[in-house]
Amino acid sequence: MLKTVDADRVRRLGPTRAGDMPLDTMGDESDEALLMRYATGDQAAAQALTLRLTPRVYAHACRMLGIPAEAEDVTQEALLRLWRMAPDWRQGEARVTTWLYRVVANLCTDRLRRARGVALDAVPEPEDEAASAADRMLEKSRAAALQAALNLLPERQRQAVILRHIEGLSNPEIAEIMETSADAVESLTARGKRALSAELSGRREELGFSDD
């Protein structure tokens, strides 16, 4: 019988800063191959996949929600759902990351709708010890301003903008995650960028934002 990865293990392994994560010792194997190995009872494969995916899932949830503690809960729930469905995973039907982004989006949307009208905190940025105090303050201000502006977008615009311009995914990849068309993704990102530009227009020079 398949032994499910428990919640405590997920919690111990992440989320954390990427530089603090243990090394991925199975980096030459795909996410899908590791998930299939876990489905046959390979716990080492599950640990390697958890170490690989946790930083990405947590970062995405943090940008969607703006609250680190909430993002941790979403990360743990998304990964636990992945382990539960592993025995039913069929190779070639989808990418693990695509499936996870979709789950994270749904979990975040549920939390955002429950918390409608409640102010969201800014995501704290890891401190760069080599940076000056002024640089750190500017970076923190930029992160807070961007997160606050993202928080004002409708959920699907926010998701599309994050996936395209922060995660760097292509429109077809985002369309698969969001279960829509590439044209719809293009429209969502364009409207989201316009809204962000309008929200930040008075602070561009102060925060060092470019037109990109």
UniProtKB/TrEMBL annotation:
Residues that span the membrane, as ranges: none
Family under the similarity heading: Belongs to the sigma-70 factor family. ECF subfamily.
PANTHER family in UniProt: RNA POLYMERASE ECF-TYPE SIGMA FACTO (PTHR43133), RNA POLYMERASE SIGMA FACTOR HI_1459-RELATED (PTHR43133:SF8)
Keywords tagged on the record: DNA-binding, Sigma factor, Transcription, Transcription regulation
Stated name of the protein: ECF RNA polymerase sigma factor SigE
GO biological process, alphabetically ordered: DNA-templated transcription initiation
Domain (RNA polymerase sigma-70 region) ranges: 52-116
Lineage top rank: taxon: Bacteria
Lineage: Bacteria, Pseudomonadati, Pseudomonadota, Alphaproteobacteria, Rhodobacterales
Entry's Gene Ontology molecular function annotations: DNA binding; sigma factor activity
Domain RNA polymerase sigma factor 70 region 4 type intervals: 145-196
